[in-house]
Amino acid sequence: MQLLLLQLVFPFFVLFCSFKNGNAGITSTFIRSEWPSVDIPLDNEVFAVPKGHNAPQQVHITQGDYDGKAVIISWVTADEPGSSKIQYGTSEKKYQLTAEGTVSNYTFYKYKSGYIHHCLVDGLESDTKYYYKIGSDDSSREFWFQTPPEINPDVPYKFGIIGDLGQTYNSLSTLEHYMQSGAQAVLFLGDLSYADRYQYTDVGLRWDTWGRFVERTTAYQPWIWSAGNHEIEYMPYMGEVVPFKSFLQRYTTPYLASKSSSPLWYAIRCASAHIIVLSSYSPFVKYTPQWMWLAEEFKRVDREKTPWLIILMHVPLYNSNEAHYMEGESMRVVFESWFIHYKVDVVFAGHVHAYERSYRFSNIHYNITSGNRYPVPDKSSPVYITVGDGGNQEGLAGRFTDPQPDYSAFREASYGHSTLEIKNRTHAFYHWNRNDDGKKVPTDSFILHNQYWSSNSRRRKLKKHYLRSVVGEMTT
Ligand SMILES: *[C@@H]1O[C@H](CO)[C@@H](O)[C@H](O)[C@H]1NC(C)=O
Ligand SMILES: *[C@@H]1O[C@H](CO)[C@@H](O)[C@H](O)[C@H]1NC(C)=O
Ligand SMILES: *[C@@H]1O[C@H](CO)[C@@H](O)[C@H](O)[C@H]1NC(C)=O
Ligand SMILES: [Fe+2]
User: Fold this and answer.
1) Which one of 194, 313, 339, 462 has the minimum C-beta count within 10 Å?
2) What pLDDT score does 178 carry?
3) Which strand (E) or helix (H) includes residue 395?
4) Whole-angstrom distance, CA of residue 415 vs CA of residue 354
5) Where does the chain cross the membrane (predicted)?
6) Cβ(184) – ligand 3 distance below 6 Å
7) Predicted TM-score (pTM) of this structure
8) Nearest atom of ligand 1 to the alpha carbon of 80
């Protein structure tokens, strides 16, 4: 018992940073593990099944189209298929509109899923609060969501960033802190439930508990999904060999709207951001569907309409943690030069259960006949940020490579989440918030300057534009 206490308490006292010379990065040796990395027991209230026969549960929404005028609402009914209808409207309890969805079910080993409903609700007004109701009898449930503002280069919007969440007490702490952040949508970086840490029928059960666990936020705002290795669920000993089976049944994405051929990679536009979701665990080398799609999607990006270009993926391309070291290298070799060419603002990844942020560095000059194999400072490169610290049962990845590489700006092995608060076309405020003693502690933050609009010629153009509009206002 004493030993356990020591193990729990000791890391909390370690708090000093090692600084290096010049522009060198910071390795924070603060490690905040908060609670033991075990899943919350099944009978805990965070997994409570809503009351009533066949009551809708595991409610979650995601953006339903390219530009944010639609949502996909998903839920599960446990006892019978029930209705796939959504009633909705812009005032509470008054639902003038309806939408009809689909229902499906699947088996995983001997687990039989509940009835999984997906309903597209489209033709929505921008920047509007909608109320919605699922089910029609006395076990119906009501929620609400707010649509994003219309696509506009200067419209503010606040995203939350969460990865590798799981269903432990640390996961709950991350969720609760995120919900205080005031962010309007989550960019989720893959590894949702960690149900694949279980066996046989428990895998499906832990997908269900996770769906109920995150409903407190996923029912009210869109979560933009990307898939991680824990979604693959290749489990031949149970006869389950179809990759991403549970994930794809339960979580949908609006992939057709961006002309993608798979729900695992796609893009959306939201407010002033163009968000591209990539799949680390689907083929991506030259000529594969994902590669061909991305080549086209980059051409569709219009920084005059959506100045912010954000990429989500599971496996980080720049990672100086010993955990998952070099796993992103193959994708880096294939895609990094495009990220530089298209001036991507920021690349978010998960997978490594720690936090790390890079400086603007690139490593695109290396080839197998040249010797230029070191990342170099590059003003055109994105910032790479790993936020794999949602709090799952595998625990923290506390061993960073020593010395800290030049590209690494800040790294710390603690649980938490990030927010990206876009202010206008040139400025966004970024924060990483550590979960600390039940408090949310802003730990790493900086102002992100837009990569496209920060070029001198565009800045001059922008000044002229504002001058004109001010003069315009004065003369009319
Ligand atoms: C889906 O549900 C129906 C009706 O309850 C059931 O007959 C069928 O076996 C289920 N299918 C799967 C794949 O579990
Ligand atoms: C390999 O890299 C070197 C140095 O950057 C460059 O000069 C050369 O053209 C590259 N080779 C090919 C085949 O791209
Ligand atoms: C953009 O936002 C930043 C940060 O709030 C502010 O300093 C800047 O003046 C804004 N730019 C314009 C053109 O409004
Ligand atoms: Fe992972």
Assistant:
1) 462
2) 97
3) none
4) 7
5) none
6) no
7) 0.93
8) 5
Query: What is the whole-number distance in angstroms between the Cα of residue 365 and the centre of ligand 2?
Result: 7
Please name the residue whose Cα sits nearest to atom 4 of ligand 3.
Answer: 427
Lining ligand 2 with CB less than 6 A are 365, 367, 369-370, 372
pLDDT at 348: 98
- Please tell me the predicted confidence (pLDDT) of residue 454: 86
The confidence score (pLDDT) of residue 29 equals: 74
Closest to 197 (Cα-Cα) out of 160, 168, 161, 159: 168
Give the per-residue pLDDT at 469.
66
Q: Are 266 and 254 in contact (CB under 8 A)?
A: yes
User: What pLDDT score was predicted for residue 471?
Assistant: 60
pLDDT tens track for 357-384:
999 999 999 888 877 789 999 999 999 9
Residue 463: predicted pLDDT: 80
Q: Which sequence positions are flagged as catalytic?
A: 324
Domains and CATH numbers, the chain: 2-48+151-460 (3.60.21.10)
Which residue puts its alpha carbon closest to atom 8 of ligand 3? 427
pLDDT at 474: 53
Q: What is the pLDDT of residue 35?
A: 81
Q: Which of 423, 454, 470 to mutate to test the pocket of ligand 3 (most atoms within 8 A of CB)?
A: 423
CA of 426 to the centre of ligand 3 (A): 7
Tell me the HSE value of 188 on the side-chain side, using a 13 A CA sphere.
Answer: 29
pLDDT at 472 (0 to 100): 54
For ligand 3, is residue 454 a contact (CB within 6 Å)?
A: no
The whole-number pLDDT of residue 18 equals 35
Q: If DSSP codes are grouped into helix, strand and coil, which group holds residue 456?
A: helix
- Report residues near ion ligand 4: CB below 5 Å: 191, 228-229, 351
Ligand 4: centre distance to CA 192 (Å): 9
pLDDT lower than 50: segments of the chain? 1-22, 475-476
In ligand 2, the atom with minimum distance to the C-alpha of 368 is: 1
Q: With a 6 A CB cut-off, is 106 part of the ligand 1 pocket?
A: yes
Strand partners, 357: 385, 410
C-alpha span between 76 and 187 (Å, rounded) = 23
Question: In Å, how far from its chain's centre is CA 462?
Answer: 31
Per-residue model confidence (pLDDT) at position 31? 73
